[in-house]
Amino acid sequence: MCAQLVAIDIVHELTTLLSSERVSVTTADRSLHAVDQSAHTPHMPDIVLWPETTAEVSNILKLANQQRLPVTAWGAGTSIEGNPIPVRGGLLLNMQRMSQILAVHENDFQVTVQPGLYYKDMNRMLAQYGLFFPPDPGANASIGGMLANNAAGIRTVKYGATRENVLALEVVLANGQIIRTGSRSVKQSSGYDLTHLIVGSEGTLGIITEATLKLYPIPAFFSAATAVFPTVQEAAQVVYEIIGSGLEPNALELLDETAVAIINTDPSINLVPGPNLFMEFSSASENSLGETMAQVQAICEESDCLNFGAGIGQDARKKLWEARHRLFEIHLHHFPGEDFLLADVSVPISQYPTLAKATAQHIADLGLKGSIISHAGDGNLHTAVFFPHSDTRSRDCANQLNKRLVELALALGGTSTGEHGVGIGKAKYMAQEHGPALEVMRQIKRALDPNGILNPGKIFPE
Amino acid sequence: MCAQLVAIDIVHELTTLLSSERVSVTTADRSLHAVDQSAHTPHMPDIVLWPETTAEVSNILKLANQQRLPVTAWGAGTSIEGNPIPVRGGLLLNMQRMSQILAVHENDFQVTVQPGLYYKDMNRMLAQYGLFFPPDPGANASIGGMLANNAAGIRTVKYGATRENVLALEVVLANGQIIRTGSRSVKQSSGYDLTHLIVGSEGTLGIITEATLKLYPIPAFFSAATAVFPTVQEAAQVVYEIIGSGLEPNALELLDETAVAIINTDPSINLVPGPNLFMEFSSASENSLGETMAQVQAICEESDCLNFGAGIGQDARKKLWEARHRLFEIHLHHFPGEDFLLADVSVPISQYPTLAKATAQHIADLGLKGSIISHAGDGNLHTAVFFPHSDTRSRDCANQLNKRLVELALALGGTSTGEHGVGIGKAKYMAQEHGPALEVMRQIKRALDPNGILNPGKIFPE
């Protein structure tokens, strides 16, 4: 689409659907929606829209479908695989004006929200009910974006990813039709599971305009712990000993020695050098939490743990996760102005030591600068690799690392993307990962969006 | 399809695909596959097949698709909504010869199995690894049937239904194409979630030939408890107090006083009369389990519990669930030779007291004989209503009860079926429950099975 040629008519028509201040063709607004937090190539949309109601989203999609205009939804822009970059231009729907909490179903441990709400804001509000939504991707993502990408994060090991914590959706389809999927019942066996089909479809099957999410009581007692091991492999070995013991950690994160060295450059952080395991446990009873922590410490010490530090209570917990969540930011400061590539593969946890060892070897072999940061309890491994923009060789090596990790993950029974989604960067691996099932995905895409207007250029290789 | 006219050619062709002893047109074999455990009208398939490999399933489907023959898969025949009744005749695939455990991924808490395996047999074998698959529908269902219907049962409140506990599938599509969905990574964000689309699709989108399931460590310590309350409503009130306290029961079942009176007619069972709450808790530590049980007892006693009985250990637990699992069988003995209708609606738990009260009233108003049996922790309510085969008035009233319960469940934000699936009996409610989303389900059905050969007559109203 060429903005200059079609924009005038379309913009006029859009301003009849939305008030004119919610339709923008300024370069400033368009460039604000050209790239997420990834290092993928930016691309501006032609028109930015801020819908306020489901009916408006429906009307926009009817028009777009008629005119064959690409439509891409935008939440907080915190994704890291280029998922909402409008690579074909067209209309960008910024969902931030649809950010209401529509209902707190306190006794059902559920909340119904609009997609533009940021999850940290939601959890702050829900705390007054003693409830929280566990998926925690780190960045203050929007609920709509978390649903679209099936975001996960540090608490998936206990509570599951976003997919496992959604009960019902309102979705606007490519033709403007509004549908409701699922129900507020936690048990559902009524026809095809459209809810979980839409979750993770990255805005390519429909635009989510409402979601009912599962919540959990905030546990009464928390304990956070760090354990340091001689090697990443020994740390990884402890991971499934802890899970196998039935101790049910809330989080089980692994940082390699490089990641720990980089995070320690922040004056407020002082971790024991070496591969660190970050852990969180919780309980309704303080005694039982104490028992759990004693078991955890025993497991770590039997496995050549060099240092074990535990702290019960909110402060220890807060400090630990602040450090974890600032990891990416500290990396960005450590490599100022550099480009980066974040890998995101995931394997069965028994294969994690193999993956981690090979990853460290590949980083060294390729002469790259970067760390391993891992949601080890899920077998989900990230690398953060940095290089100057002009350094083509390192960029090629980073892409090579990504390719090697994907191929290794697939060979180990895993997936090319655990939580960042396919977006732009992983589309090229879809045929390899899914084989003939990719054609089934295409059939579903064609059935629901025959004109291909929804977030084109994503998920499917071209 | 008229068996007499087409069977000779087709049977001949099928015997070239399978050895001839695995192709049957005898009335004995056909009538063994004419009805599940429901009271729906039986219908015989034309030909019964026992495939042994995925390739055989694929070849059968290629032929069936070419010849437009209906194909229905059959697991253990324990479903109760007519889900595998071959209402259009055609080919019936009995999956019992595909019942291997293909791999125990012990360190990943996963198992890969064929669909004909019965889950109790699987769990018996997995016990040697200290692992189990939690969904427990009571009857010894096949894994394929549990996946197809998204079976749930008593442990869903803690572990989720079958859907939540499957990672990857091998599926044969209507055209014979074999696909693999998902991966063995617990985190997956790689394209459309075909795994969860196939689960619960009741054999209408493809035939499952392999599944990788999530397992859990068998907890070290169990405690079972029963609590008796003056009314169903008071018992239901306790349910979300227990869940809200973060105590995480494994199971939380509610039986009304009629169900308890009927189950007490069995000489080996001696429950305190009145509405009973059956509960199970577990822990890795005996002390912490003791604390939990003290908290549970306190909650029950604050809520006018008439009697509280708890027993720690496997024996108490076994006794409780034997009674619960024999409930249906004892009902059948209590109403010998009678027909029955099992309702299966599910609502948000806050709405369960309303649903339970109204259900009791409807049963009385309609002059029906029957009990309320409920997975209360999930808001999932069953009624078991019995009537003589010739009693048309009671049959009409039973259907009326079913209709009223579905309408009430939908009005309360719930679903027409929590765990039995749509099958035959719930198809008429699909438009009401799903509105325009039902057309999306039809679009997916048409895309994946354009000739409509897979389990026709199910899910979609006609």
Give an account of the 3D structure.
The structure is a homodimer of 462-residue chains. In chain A, 36% of the residues lie in helices and 20% in strands. By secondary structure, the first copy, chain A, is an alpha+beta fold. The longest helix of chain A has 20 residues. In chain A, strands 12, 13, 14, 15, 16, 17, 18 and 19 form an eight-stranded antiparallel β-sheet that branches. A five-stranded antiparallel β-sheet of chain A has the order 5-6-10-8-9. A four-stranded mixed β-sheet of chain A has the order 1-2-4-3, with helices on one face. The N terminus of chain A is likely disordered. Chain A has 16 helices and 19 strands. At the A-B interface, strand 9, helix 7, helix 8, helix 10 and helix 15 of A face strand 9, helix 7, helix 8, helix 10 and helix 15 of B.
What is the subunit organization of this protein? Answer: homodimer
Measured as a percent range, the helix fraction of chain A is 25-40%
Beta-strand percentage range of chain A: 15-25%
Radius of gyration of chain A: 22 Å
Question: Would you report the number of β strands of chain A?
Answer: 19
Shape of chain A: globular
Q: Separation of termini of chain A?
A: 18 Å
Biggest interface reads: A-B, 93 and 92 residues
Task: Compute the number of helices of chain A.
Answer: 16
Helix vs. strand class of chain A: alpha+beta
Mean of pLDDT of chain A: 93
Largest sheet of chain A: 8 strands, antiparallel
Low-confidence stretches of chain A: 1-5
